Amino acid sequence: MGCWIETIPRFTNLLFSVLTILGMLASLYFLSLSLKTIPLGTAYAVWTGIGTVGVVLIGIFFMEPCTILRFIFSIIVGIIGLKLL
Q1: What is the pTM assigned to this prediction?
Q2: Under 8 Å CB-to-CB from 82, ≥6 apart: which residues?
Q3: 12 with 6: CB under 8 angstroms?
Q4: Whole-angstrom Cα distance, residue 8 to residue 3?
Q5: Is 46:31 a contact under the CB 8 Å cutoff?
Q6: Are the CB atoms for 53 and 78 separated by under 8 Å?
């Protein structure tokens, strides 16, 4: 694999690498499906929001301490960031 993957400790495990790449491909596939029925701006905003919430949940579940303030703050910052775009 590329040298950028070797610098990430989790990517030394082949299972994590394959699951991550499959997840990325599935995400792009479902984004392309949504573009058949809704406008690009709406699809991208929803796609980004789902990704933001997903990363926060994975971070809380696996690595970071779970506080309701952190979760709510992440969602609010994500919404404000999308509004500013």
Answers
A1: 0.60
A2: 45, 48, 49
A3: yes
A4: 9
A5: no
A6: yes
pLDDT along the chain (85 residues), means of 10: 54 80 92 92 84 77 74 75 66
Structure tokens at 67: 């506080």
Report the distance separating Cα 60 and Cα 40, nearest Å. 30
| Tokens (6 digits) for 20 | 């991550």
Sole residue written with tokens 């500013």: 84
Quickly list DSSP for 39-67: -HHHHHHHHHHHHHHHHHHHHHHHTS---
Residues in the chain: 85
Number of H helices, E strands in the chain: 4, 0
Structure tokens at 48: 């980004």
